[in-house]
Structure formats: structure tokens, C-alpha cells
Amino acid sequence: MAFLFPIKTRETTCTVDGRHCLFVKKSIRTQENIQKTLNYFSKRILFNEQLLEAAPGLYTWILRESGNLFAARTISKQEIGTLHINLKELTDKIDDSDIYAAGEFEINLPVIKFNLSSGTFMAKKFRNANKIELRNEVVETVEKKLKSLSLANARANAAVIQPVFLECSDATCSEEELISGRKLIEAANIRITPNNFEAVSTMFNVQNIRNSLNNMREPAKKPKVKNVSMRKKAKPKASMRKSLKKPRK
């Protein structure tokens, strides 16, 4: 099974209290574990109207040319299982149409803030000369899709989604953000829950880079200080002794 499951390796995965941090290097390449990993992260993906039940948090998302929208809540700073390429590969069996747009969500229903930040899919899309015009077109399409989810839902008490594009136009914005919108996940301090931490530890080759540091650190040894007052005073040299003699009257 040729499923590589890419992982962002420039970050680490840490627990809420910050006492445990793992650097996840790659998935364990056994057939049994690959299937376990696929099942674990596939179940976390929300599909179209399921977004109306989304818990507050940060998500990555992809919108396919077919109009289907997929999103998954980010569980760690490394975005394990929720990179845009992960979402594509995990949903190809459901819908293998091309990716129209991708980015990040900040969900706090009924408001869904979003950007178009995706080096995998959006960087190429915005390489043409009419970047802003194309960006505005994509933003409008995503907004329509998000609003349509509420209308498609049969529940009378469903809140209408209020999409908000995170436009970035001040001096702190990077060149990418000026087009794709203000980044969410990169700027957030996302911590993994104990249950997800345990699961990740079994599915991936990990290096424990911090493990109860307070318990592991030995108290610093105090430097030895010699008691100066107990030292014997050195005798002056012979030449010095002569000069120290009292002069005769």
C-alpha cells in the first residue's frame, strides 16, 4: 500500500501542560499500522453538512471541483493527519475530483473564519498575474458553499453559517497572506489531548524530546568555594623581608 502520510517535521507535538513533547518523524510502515492510521484520521474528517456540528477550533479544509467540502480539526502543531495532502488522499475514494480551493478554518458556529492558505494547492493557483481578482472569485465561491450548508440542512433550528474571509492588508502581513489571508494554524499554540497523544505515539515513529522535565532535571551542583580565611598566609620572599625590617635609629 503506497500511502506515505506526509508530516510537517519543522514543528513538534506537545501536550496541553507542555510536559510531554514528541517529534513525529514518519508513520510506521507496516500494513496493519497503515490501515490503523488511515481509519483513525478518516473518521475525523467532516463532510459538507457535518460542518454544522463542528466543535470550536482550528481546521484544515479542501473544496473539490465537484463542490464537496472536507475539513478536519487540527490536533497538533505538526498538523498530523490534517495537512491538505492528507485530506486529499484520505477522501480520494469518496471524491477524486480536482482540488478547487484549500485553506484553514477557525470555527465558532455560526461564524466560520477562513483563509486560502495552502502551499500544496493554492500557491500554484495564485501564480498568475490577476492574483487579487482570482482570490476574490475563490473567496466568493467558498462563502457561497458555506452558506449553502445551512440551507441544505433539514433542521429548522440550524444556524445560518456566517463566513468571514480573514483578509490581511497591514504591514505585518507576509506576501502570501496579502493574497491568501491571515494565517491561523501557524500562529496558534495548538496542544494535543492525552488520548490523541497516546494514539499518535503508537502509530508513528516518534522521538520523545521532553518528558516531565521538572522530574528529570537534577538540581544544579553548587560550586566549591574555598574558605579563604583558613588559608595560611604565604611568607614574603627573602628580598622582600629585608625591605620590611624596621630601620635602625
Any overview of this molecule?
There is one protein chain. The chain has 249 residues and is of the alpha+beta class. It has one domain. Helices cover 29% and strands 21% of the residues. The protein contains 8 helices and 9 strands. The longest helix is centred in the middle third of the chain and has 22 residues. About 8% of the residues have low confidence.
Task: Give a brief rundown of this model.
By secondary structure, this protein is an alpha+beta fold. The chain is built from eight helices and nine strands. The strands form two sheets. It has a six-stranded mixed β-sheet with strand order 3-5-4-6-7-8. Strands 1-2-9 form a three-stranded antiparallel β-sheet.
Blueprint of the fold:
Blueprint: E1 13-14, E2 20-27, H1 31-42, E3 45-47, E4 57-64, E5 69-73, H2 84-91, E6 99-108, E7 111-114, H3 122-125, H4 131-152, E8 162-165, H5 175-180, H6 194-203, E9 204-211, H7 213-216, H8 238-244
